[in-house]
Amino acid sequence: MTKTKIDELSRAGPVIDDMVAEQQGAITPAPSSRVETVEYSRTQDRPQAMPKAGGRTPWRLIVFSLIVLVPFLASVMYYAFVAADQYTAEARFAVRSLADEEKEDESNVSILKMTPASQDAYVVTSFIHSTEILRRIGAYLDYKAMFVRDGSDFYAEFDPDDSAEEFLSYWNNQVYTYIDGPSGIVVLRVRTFSPEDSIKLANAILEESEKLINELSTRSRNDMIASARAEVERTGKTYGEALAALNRFQKESGLLSPEAQAEQTGKLLTGLMAQKLELDSRLFVIQQSNGIDSPTYRQLVLGRSSIEAQIEELRNQMTGKEVESYANTLNAFARLETDRMVAEKLYEATRHHYEMSLAAAMRKALYLTVFVQPMLPEEALYPRRVMTPAVGLFFLFVLWAILSLAWASIEDHRL
């Protein structure tokens, strides 16, 4: 291209620019140099985006309104005009046993030393959140009516047409329990729509929990002493049979104590033999003095004969026939007395073991100690009409921010 043609194009540049500006509804100032003319002509070669007829749709504002503003405004309206007041009754108790207290007394317990919560505390809290306590309380208290008002609060109230499983889930939301691990203290909170119902339901829960602890203690005590009690009954029966056999023998023999009777008979026999020896001495003296024909001699002879007959009779009682002898009686009595003594010793030993088992069971007996009684609430702590919507707004905003970042990341990957 020659210099003349270049000059012609440079002079025609402003004319072309004015024509383009008139078509777009704007007036573009003429270029002041040759370089600007060339750059301007290059920009005109690019395709121009035509604007849409209705303008761009504000999708970000719509999504923000649906995710954040609408739920927040709905929660504000609910907590301001619909949500019903709920009153909370609180109680605190602990499940203890005498064995735990004795261990604490015997050991050096410091301030920093803590005892973990026992399994019985978890048993009680599990019982509070079960259908068993509902069955027991329902026998004398209409607990479902406490959670049904006029039907205005559709979210917090319980629907009477719901099933038992749905009510158990609702119950677990209204009845709160917490176990402090180091101390084992159980915190119970009950929420209803009136102060009177809250304290009435809390007292009913505490009463049924205490009954459960007593049942567990009784069952544990019975299991621990069942074998000892059976052994006491068996040895007691054996001891009774031994006593009955001994009494029957005493009635049949007519002797309360054959040993004492034998001892008495032996004393009588000894005395008679001493008298016989004395008579023999006197008779010997009379015979030496040739006084056989005297009346005194004859009386002494008769007395000796009588004493000899008594001695013979006593000897027969002690060493005579097997059935009638004292030796047989003493053997039978000794056998029965031995059986009685053995049965008595066994019975005393089993009784001692039973008493020790009973004492151990009593030390392990559980009892529920309520040290914070439920009080009549004066102010409705729920619902939290300001805190709950504010916290909800924060989480909704976080959700919207996460979704926005995720969508921006997806758009970046498309480019």
From TrEMBL:
Keywords attached to this entry: Coiled coil, Membrane, Transmembrane, Transmembrane helix
Compositional bias segments (type: Basic and acidic residues): 36-45
Descriptive protein name: Capsule polysaccharide transporter
Transmembrane segments: 61-81, 390-410
Region Disordered: start-end pairs: 26-52
Any coiled-coil regions, as ranges: 297-324
Gene it is expressed from: wcbD
PANTHER family: FERRIC ENTEROBACTIN TRANSPORT PROTEIN FEPE, TYROSINE-PROTEIN KINASE
Organism: Shinella yambaruensis
Record flagged with keyword Transmembrane: yes
InterPro entries: Bact_polysacc_biosynth/exp (IPR050445)
